[in-house]
Amino acid sequence: MYTMKRWMKYAAALAAGALAMTACSDDYLETEPSNTVLDETLSNDVEYYGTYINGINLLMMYQQGAYGQGYCGMIDVLVDIGNTCGNDWSNEAMGGFNSANMKLTTDNNAAYAGYAWWFLYQIIGQANRIISHIDEAAGSDESRAFYKAQALTYRAYCYQYLVQIFGNRWSDSNNGATNAVVLRVNDSREDLGLSTLADCYARIYQDCDDAIALFGQSGRSATNFFDPSINLAYGVKARAALCREDWTTAAECAEKARAGHPLMSAREFQSGFHTANDEWIFGAYAGSEMNMWYYSFGCYYAYNGYYSATGVYNTLGSRQLVDALNDTDARKQLFASESMLQKIDPSIDVDALLESGDIMNYCWANVQTQEGVALAHAIHDYMDSVPGVLAASNLTGAYPARPAVYSQLKFGCTELPGVSQMVLMRSAEMYLTQAEALCKKPNPDYAAAQQLLYDVNSRMDPSYTKSTKTGQELIDEILFYRRAELWGEGFDWFDLKRTGASISRKSYRLGQGGVFGINFAVTVGPNDPGTNDWKWTIPLDETQYNSEVE
Hints:
The chain has helices spanning 4-22, 26-29, 47-59, 74-83, 97-100, 111-133, 141-166, 197-218, 230-244, 247-257, 266-269, 297-301, 306-309, 319-322, 338-341, 350-356, 370-385, 427-440, 446-458, 471-485, 492-499, 540-543, and strands at 89-90, 179-182, 194-196, 280-284, 316-317, 422-426, 503-504, 523-524. Helix 18 (427-440) packs antiparallel against helix 20 (471-485). The chain is globular. The strands form 4 sheets. A two-stranded antiparallel sheet has the order 1-5. The chain has a two-stranded antiparallel ribbon with strand order 2-3. The chain is built from 22 helices and 8 strands. It is mainly alpha-helical.
């Protein structure tokens, strides 16, 4: 079992190993990694902390042993909770319907939440060591400010996810008075109790503000998409403010976060999300020389990844979301939906194929029937027809063994089994955050919100016209396109929780007209009985060994 204190010790050894892999000189590569974060010799040099930050960058998407070898950093926080527990991501061959249906929120042994706690505190522990000790190191004040700013940004980034998972949404918190998570802000490992949600958000705000000031003092900018930057600090604060219902701060910080990161074009959007581009504010690195093989995001979820292309795991978009988009929308074109398939074969009728048995479990085409074979070919031909999409086939055959209707084409990989980088924040999120916040602030600016929404949508859909809606109707439109734009990037469940919206999934069975298996087809709200207000219980591994947490 892992307590937070024991996790920190484990993470220290792991990060020391990461340092060995990411060090910037041959001399350091020849140094034996320490089993503690701060080697007494190396930590006297401020440039050591830059190397250490690079080690934390690696941990963001790195195969780890806790909770099983298949858990690999932010991938699992975003997929297992953000996507799987939401409305619009179907990959039921992976299982986990009890978690997805909010039936395990009071289970202190639940793996989804337990791993999130373990991983995020792992990163916080590393950040705290840098924050606590870098001022003692000799070297450039500019470097010291820059590396400390990056560590503060990492800490705020992780606490923002922790409070969303383990805390109440703001409207249920009595203005932040309810308890949330353990707030560790230094290098100590003593037992600590839970801090209130208000105190946690105050710390996130402070860390972001301090980071922004230090980035400015340093005179330096992040050079890689996987390095924490001043844009990321503004973005984390915007996320926190949105959850805290601090609309003015959310709008201001979102605008600053996207500075210098122009929106990608429709063509770039359809190019697989496997390689960072200028819109990415932050992401996790992977390459042929550094990837997680059969536990990678691309291996499981990319349309041309190993498991998808062999028909083991197909990832589908919600039919209710996809069908609501215009056919001219580049985002809709990244799903093998009924209207898209009809461009290949006008006779395709998904509901009729479901009723006849020509679509089987998980929306797979039944290649044992003539109609099912025709559907499989249509899906494959459509996948190959989308501009920017890599070949949908791989070494396993001419087309995926079990192609499925509403299969996604947003996420691809560049090499097998699933080499792909992972986006963790990009400008479109900040446009939509700013638009929502402008609608909700005390003096709404609907015209500016309409323009921001138009900026996001017009590049995706040439037939989109600027909205004239105001009030809740405009907010609803922004939230709908937020679902479409950010599909699969880990926002779904978090947005449902903070807005008080319900999970509502429809099955492909029983005439429901959806893409989910019957076990996932539920309707459940964040305040429904038995759901603990979607507030996951503090893991048993923490409460057993931290005497201040019950």
